[in-house]
Amino acid sequence: MSNIVQYIIVRSDLKSVLNWPLGAIIAQCCHATAAIMHLNQEDSDTIAYLKDLDNMHKVVLEIKDEDSIKALSEKLKENDINHKLWIEQPENIPTCIAVKPYPKENVHKYLKGLKLMK
User: Fold this and answer.
1) For residue range 37-91, what is the model confidence (pLDDT) as tens digits?
2) d(CA 100, CA 26)
3) What is the C-alpha separation between 100 and 33, in angstroms, rounded?
4) Which helix (H) or strand (E) holds 28?
């Protein structure tokens, strides 16, 4: 599986400012991850990533707020990085991004300024 990794980027203000419970935040990540994996089920990197389920590599990063996550989604779109911006309904709140599995070197440069989620 070499260096294929999946990145998940979560808004840190969901917990610190909006007081969302941890379980609700984790559910957002699960929704986005399931969606992007489904949408890319025939992609060669996704197939390779899923061949070794016990050794999947995910990196969960945090991003400041709604404006920041929307800007990141646009930057990823502009650079043809396939991802799912999860928007919680019915509130219409963008909560997280799940990027499809990619070789690390294809994606890391777009996420360099982000820190691991705490």
Assistant:
1) 999 999 999 999 999 899 999 999 999 999 999 999 999 999 999 999 999 999 9
2) 18
3) 8
4) helix 22-39
Domains of the chain: 4-116 (3.40.1490.10)
CB 48 within 8 A of CB 1: yes
Residue type, 47: I
Q: For residues 45 and 101, is the Cβ–Cβ distance under 8 A?
A: yes
Give the C-alpha separation, 101 to 5, whole Å.
Answer: 5
Token code pair at residue 62 = 């945090």
Least Cα distance to 81 among 105, 55, 53, 52 occurs for 105
The single-letter DSSP state of residue 54 is G
